[in-house]
Specification:
heterodimer, A: 828 residues, alpha/beta, Rossmann fold, 8-stranded mixed sheet, extended, B: 318 residues, 10 strands, globular
Chain lengths: 828, 318
């Protein structure tokens, strides 16, 4: 076996090599699957001694000096070994802002749209291949890139698939149809440390579209208002036609009469104050038209993040500010205050204009109303037009000095969107704190702190699943409340693929669970939570079935949970903190950590928790963990249970109430069932007695009125019996089905039972214009009228499978038609 | 894990796709109306549907009209010795388990001169498909009585009619040790024939299919006359049997429910008096296979072989 395959290679960041994948796949096929290795049996005394050391290790974390070598969590081993895994990146955002989705879904949806029910087999099979071509090209790109060239390259490559003849033609036609339906333009986004920021950029683009729609509505209002004013000046300046103007027709016109007859339009002039009001409105609306086309979204970042992300490229049309965290909050607040007042005046102007146009503006009522209208009373749709202030920073900064600023910002309820990026895929030890203390302390949870401000929209999300992240960010950006988005991103400069796995593992292990708190989802506290983005959200830990071979090589399967300890073990330095227990010493006191954490206190004594690991030779190992690992698992589990309860799962009070309700309900039903049973038995007894009498009566009736009985029923019975007798076979399995007539088409056009064709070449050789082979090399009618009716009849006569039916003649002028019709009869 | 999934490259996608034309070799030189055309098409269709790589597929035949078959397939083929198609195919399968092996044989080739090999092929139960093209006459040599010619068939060898009752290949196979797959179909029922060959190809062992085949030149009165006679065939139907569409199923006046696990009933239906049953008679997926034994030492290295040989030779050392 090649020694080149090693987990360590993968775990060392930055060494992933695409070209090795194929070879790895091959090698994986030959190697033995993950297995338990046979070991010598240990004597009782040896076991006892071993466990003394092991328990000591559990308490203190101290163990005999030894390196564990390269080990990975069992559930991740198959992925790490092959170096092959992926999620739903790249993510596609169309140019027109319509339904962005992961590329995989876009391809699948387009395929379904193009072909509907008649999905072509080869292209359908090759969609994954097309996606992998896309990814191949995409992997050379950075965070964001154009869709079109990548699509062209991928489609062209798939077009070279080795398929020829008819299948090839069909495949290439299908591919062309499919390509024609694929979207044009738009952007693709890779898994990248800036991915969340790109998504924010997309949502700002969305806002831009909304805003320009609003601007054109305003422009319409302006022109309508101006029209009104114009009419008014017309009215005001209206003069009677003077006689002198019409001297040539003086004697024909009676101008006084005409004036009487002409409509008295606009006879009521607008008040001077209304005219002024409208003029002011027009000025205000013009400022919307001008400002909104110039205004840019405002983003403020802290230095640590500004260094990492190429913000100018990500947000080309935004005002960017870079400062320290405290100042950032201050700037954001100021910018918001400045913008929101102007925005509110402009929106009010829009509302007023609408009222003016409908002639509904009542000064006494509306002046007062609009004077006291504050921004937070605007409607959701209106607020949606506002450019929110975006503050980009890191979670560490926020949880450090920035906590009070953040709290102030969230309580002020201003539309400031705080983006907290974190690339800490593992907790880093604080050198000042003793490790035991550190493990005991609880982590500060940004999301939990944010939720406690009740009105702030909160999102905690890994960046491993593009659609989830994009939608989460979208909801957060649209919310008319302050928002906190805490997003786990890959660290810059590291192998992104390893990070993808690590971020995913962080979410899976409940280290960084998905959580969204959206105040607009409902009045009730519970309805605002969503934790469905987590794997198996109803369980403590996600659990998967795991396949391996036991000592004898027999295939086995067990349920393995992916716990926080597994996640921790993904970090190389941490692996050495574990104690590998040989199989011979694994007693019933060694239990998986997920089960360990569920034990009651009195069951814990003497037990040691472990996780399943796999080494480079695919041997399954048990890694016992020290007490502190178990404590930190418990800490994560606590936080997860907290989130679960918020999300409405496993709520203590609900479960209690359910249990109580169920017990009372069960007892009640039990009583009801007993009562019903008793009454049923009574009724049966009564019925039995009366039924006997009735039966006798009926029998007597029948015997007395024998003649009137309908005879049909008895003859039917006889017929049935004879049918049974006629199939006189040794067993009952044979059944004769009644003759079914072959469906005949209305004998007008020629038809062919293709499924019965035996491909003898007769018809296609003799009458190639009228018959051809289909893709299965069975005959179909190409064009019956391309030859004579006589040809059809002859073809039917020659057909050894007798599956051609010439139908009736189509050309009445054909010679000897009568004879042919007669000859066609047996085949129709 | 939900988030990550094995990369798509991991999917086992074929690199090449084959059309029917990729399996077509020269134009078939069978007589017009011969049932062999239909069988050829069905087999080519199977190859395309299952995307069998031509370079990994072998057709082995004996002698006879049917045995021209390998010439018309653009795969590997072996047009062999009369009656010896089975031994050749077994040899191929014994050491090349990666190849898909089909045996094409006729009623003379299989049931007469090759009968000895036939029964042992059944017992060996190596994974391959054996198609018996049964037109109940020797057509290539212009009409001599074959073992399956109906009693009284007038031919060059028996101008006044054959004098022995015909053998029933289905009954013969059903009676033999370790038989694992026996099916019957008719070339003029292309849909049923295709499904039968497909089922045979999926069978993990020796799949024997007798195909009733028309010979329009030398046996005009044989099956050719039966094409229009819908009462002649009875369909064996079962969920474990040959899957056919309702359209095909309804075209049979007689449908017999038959569980292919039941060999006794299979023997009964093999001998129906007025009709011929088509469908799957018997299948046993667990019958022992000789080819697995044959391939058990394939991955031995030369050194290991040498060591083995030496070990044996050392036993004679003094």
């Amino acid at each position: 076996m090649s020694k080149e395959i090693s987990f360590s290679e993968f775990l060392k960041e930055g060494t992933f090599r695409e070209d090795k994948v194929a070879r790895r796949l091959e090698e994986r096929k030959i190697k033995r699957p993950i297995h338990l290795e046979a070991e010598d049996v240990a004597s009782e005394k040896e076991i006892k001694d071993f466990w003394k050391v092991l328990r000591q290790f559990y308490r203190t974390g101290e163990k005999p000096e030894m390196h564990n070598g390269v080990l990975v969590p069992a559930l991740l081993a198959p992925y790490l070994e092959s170096g092959i895994w992926d999620t739903d990146y790249p993510f596609y955002c169309p140019a027109n802002g319509e339904s962005p989705n992961s590329l995989e879904k876009v391809l699948q949806n387009t395929f379904n749209l193009t072909f509907g029910e008649k999905a072509p087999k080869i292209l359908g099979q090759n969609l994954p291949r097309l996606l992998s071509y896309f990814r191949e090209v995409a992997s050379l790109q950075k965070g964001s890139y154009d869709f079109d060239p990548i699509r062209d390259a991928a489609i062209a490559k798939l077009g070279q698939l080795d398929v020829h003849h008819e299948e090839g033609e069909r495949f290439r036609k299908d591919l062309a149809d499919f390509n024609a339906r694929l979207p044009i333009g738009g952007k693709l986004y890779n898994f990248h440390h800036s991915a969340p920021l790109y998504f924010i950029g997309e949502h700002l683009q969305d806002k831009k579209r909304l805003r320009s729609a609003f601007v054109s509505a305003v422009q319409k209002q302006i022109s309508k208002l101006e029209e009104r004013l114009f009419q008014e000046t017309e009215k005001a300046g209206r003069k009677l036609v003077k006689k002198e103007d019409l001297d040539f027709a003086n004697e024909f016109l009676v101008l006084d009469k005409i004036e009487e007859l002409s409509p008295k339009k606009g006879s009521e002039l607008m008040s001077e104050s209304r005219i002024n009001r409208i003029k002011t409105l027009i000025d205000l609306l013009r400022s919307v038209e001008f400002d909104w086309n110039v205004e840019k979204p405002y983003l403020v970042t802290t230095q640590d993040r500004a260094e990492i992300h190429e913000l100018k490229e990500i947000f080309p049309n935004a005002t960017l500010e870079e400062t320290d965290l405290k100042n950032a909050f201050e700037l954001a607040r100021k910018e918001f205050d400045r913008n929101i007042n102007k925005f509110t005046t402009q929106i009010i102007a829009h509302r007023k204009a609408a009222l003016e146009l409908d002639d509904q503006y009542v000064v006494d009522v509306h002046d007062d109303y609009f004077n006291h209208l504050k921004w937070f009373k605007l409607s959701q749709d209106e607020l949606n037009l506002f450019h929110p202030i975006v503050l980009i920073t890191s979670s560490t900064a926020l949880l450090g000095d920035g906590l009070s600023c953040l709290s102030d910002c969230l309580s002020s309820n201003k539309l400031i969107k705080v983006v907290a990026l974190t690339d800490r895929t593992a907790s880093q030890a604080d050198p000042d704190v003793h490790w035991e203390e550190a493990s005991r302390s609880f982590r500060k949870e940004l999301a939990a702190l944010s939720i406690s401000h009740r009105s702030a929209h909160t999102l905690q999300c890994g960046s491993d699943q593009s659609k989830l992240l994009f939608d989460g960010i979208g909801a957060s950006m649209r919310a008319n409340t302050p928002s906190v988005m805490q997003i786990l991103v890959p660290a810059i400069g590291s192998d992104t693929r390893i990070n993808l796995l690590k971020i995913n593992a962080a979410v899976e292990s409940r280290y960084f669970p998905y959580l969204s708190y959206d105040i607009e989802k409902g009045e009730q506290w519970g309805s605002r939570f969503d934790i469905s983005g987590n794997p198996q959200p109803d369980k403590n830990w996600p659990t998967y079935s795991f396949k391996y071979e036991d000592v004898d090589g027999a295939p086995r399967e067990m349920q393995v949970s992916f716990t926080y300890a597994d996640y921790k073990a993904l970090t190389r330095e941490k692996i050495d903190e574990l104690f590998i227990v040989p199989e011979a010493y694994a007693t019933e006191h060694l239990i998986p950590v997920n089960e360990f954490l569920e034990l009651r206190d009195d069951e814990l004594s003497g037990k040691v928790p472990f996780i399943w690991l796999v080494d480079e030779q695919r041997r399954l190992k048990r890694g016992a963990m020290p007490y502190m690992w178990a404590v930190s698992c418990q800490e994560r589990l606590d936080y997860w249970n907290f989130i679960q309860e918020l999300g409405g799962l496993n709520s203590y009070h609900v479960n209690e109430a359910l249990y109580k309700a169920k017990t009372t309900w069960d007892a009640e039903k039990e009583r009801e069932i007993d009562a019903l049973k008793a009454s049923f038995e009574r009724e049966i007894a009564v019925a039995r007695e009366s039924a006997a009498g009735e039966a006798m009566e009926r029998l007597a009736d029948v015997l007395l009125n024998l003649d009137d009985l309908p005879l049909q029923s008895s003859s039917k019975v006889v017929a049935k019996t004879s049918a049974v007798i006629s199939t006189s076979e040794p067993d009952t399995e044979q059944e004769k089905v009644e003759e079914k007539t072959v469906p005949k088409a209305a004998s007008s056009e020629a038809w062919l039972e293709t499924f019965r064709c035996t491909s003898c070449n007769d018809c296609v050789d003799k009458y190639p214009l009228q018959f051809k082979y289909n893709e299965d090399k069975q005959a179909v009618i190409q064009d019956a009228k391309a030859g004579t009716y006589a040809n059809l009849v002859q073809a039917a006569e020659n057909c050894p499978a007798q599956c051609i039916h010439p139908g009736s003649p189509f050309n009445p002028d054909e010679p000897h038609l009568d004879e042919w019709v007669k000859r066609a009869e047996p085949f129709n | 894990m939900i988030g990550i999934k094995a990369d798509l490259i991991d999917l086992d996608l074929p690199e090449v796709y084959y059309s029917i034309q990729d399996y077509e070799s020269s134009t078939a030189r069978w007589c017009p109306g011969c049932g062999d055309h239909a069988i050829l098409t069905a087999v080519q269709k199977l190859c395309r549907e299952e995307q069998l790589p031509p370079e990994k597929t072998v057709f082995v035949s004996g002698i006879g009209c049917s045995s021209r078959f390998p010439h018309y397939m653009k795969t590997y083929g072996f047009h062999g010795l009369h009656g010896r198609a089975f031994p050749v195919a077994e040899g191929v399968k014994f050491r090349r388990p990666d190849l898909d092996v089909f045996v094409i044989t006729g009623d003379g080739d299989c049931c007469s001169i090759g009968a000895g090999h036939w029964v042992h092929a059944l017992r060996y139960n190596m994974k391959m498909v054996a198609l018996l093209f049964d037109n109940s006459i020797y057509g290539l040599t212009k009409k001599q009585t074959s073992p399956t010619s109906p009693l009284g068939t007038s031919s060059n060898t028996h101008p006044r009619g054959s004098v022995l009752p015909p053998m029933n290949p289905i009954q013969t196979t059903l009676g033999f040790t370790n038989v694992s797959f026996v099916a019957q179909t008719a070339d003029w029922q292309p849909a049923h024939m295709y499904e039968t060959i497909k089922k045979a190809h999926q069978h993990p062992g020796f799949a024997f299919v007798r195909i009733l085949q028309r010979c329009p030149i030398w046996m005009k009165d044989g099956f050719c006359a039966d094409v229009g006679n819908r009462d002649m065939l009875a369909l064996l139907d079962h969920e474990d049997g040959i899957e056919v569409t309702d359209e095909v199923r309804n075209s049979f006046p007689t449908i017999i429910k038959h569980d292919p696990a039941d060999i006794n009933n299979a023997r009964f239906y093999a001998e129906l008096e007025d009709q011929v049953a088509i469908g799957l008679f018997y299948q046993d997926k667990n019958a022992p296979r000789y080819d697995l034994y044959g391939t058990s030492n394939l991955d031995m290295t030369n050194d290991e072989r040498l060591a083995g040989l030496n070990a044996h030779l050392d036993r004679f050392a003094i």
